[in-house]
Amino acid sequence: MATNEIIDPPVPADPEPSRGRGLLLLLLVANSAMMAVYMGVGSVLLPTQIAAIAGDDKVAVLGLIGGISAIFATAFNPIAGALSDRSGRRNPWVLGGAIGSLVGLAVVGSVSTALLVGIGWCLVQATMNIYQAAVTAIVPDRVPAARRGTASALVGLGLPIGGTVGVLIASQTSEHLRTGYLVFGGVIAGAALLLTTFCRDVPRSEPDPDAPAAPKGAQLKAFLSALANHDFRWAFIGRALMVLGYFSVVGYQLYILGDHITLPAGLTPPAAMAILTPVSMVAMAVSTVVGGLLSDRWNRRKVFVGVSAALAGLVMVVPVVSPTWTGMLVFSALNGLAFGCFMAVDTALVTLVLPRAEDAARDMGVLNIANAGPQIIAPFVASAVVTTLGGYTPLFLVGGALSLIGALAILPIRSVR
Predict the structure, then answer these.
(1) Tens digit of pLDDT for each residue in 39-86?
(2) Structural domains in the chain plus CATH codes
(3) 20: which residues sit within 8 A by CB, 6+ positions away?
């Protein structure tokens, strides 16, 4: 039974601080590569490919593919986390997930029907979440609790760095989709090789092979036991609502730029993405570092998480009031500030409410359902809102409302200030 007691995993003594910095650098590269794939492929290459295949039905088809593929992400992340806990190792799962993603991306880039694109993207989502589950668990494995905010901030820079690089690569290869997909496959495979070569697995206790296997029902109950913990459950809810609001809008940004925003003459939606993304990601990088460092210094997590989630909700009004290129620039900058701070500090907060250290990867995998799960709903919600409520203005309002409710969900957490 889960309790509110916070147990930090044993972190090996590191007599050389430079080795700790080296670990964080490798994790930054690993997370940057992951976000490059998610943002570059998910926000540019995949919507471009679907628009070429489905034409006027692009919104609905993208929503269907995004929703079904996110089911694979939701399932594979916690399962891979639990298996890596059980095996006592992370590196095989990092490398195996990356190689599988390379294969999946090559498949997506070589097909020309919506069905085959959907199958290939499901494979990518499954294997990328195997990779993500193992990489995510390294922070609670190796970093002391007092440094989690700083570590999460540095690792969290993977989103602005990877997102910017990913969208820039995608915008340059959007007319050569096969090449673009292969480049992203090479990026994730290369990052996995670096991490697994220079970051050795920390020895972890392995289960007794002679111990009797628990019944399937008991295994499922244990698998989801973290949600019985009051603080973990509310952190889960807050993360899920924030991610749902964010991806309901961001997942359709290429179409928003083409169909809702008045762009300057000669500026195409992919080129506009290549401008907006660095604006958002620079703001995200600043707020990620500042939020993580200040949350450590002041030993406060909830205020940063709650305020940033509320800001993310409020800035959704900007493109509604001003559906212009200037309005999108302002929105991108403010949304980047809000989301960067939220993800950095919320990740630190979650590591501090994990019920059991020995189940860190499994429970972080369950938490990652709050990342992937809303992405199941987001494409369906977004496509339904756009098609039934008359365009993208209602979509921004729905996304903002979800983020604001997510901010309120942080308040009941008791064990973290």
Answers:
(1) 899 889 999 999 999 988 888 898 889 888 888 887 888 888 888 888
(2) 17-200+218-408 (1.20.1250.20)
(3) 14, 143
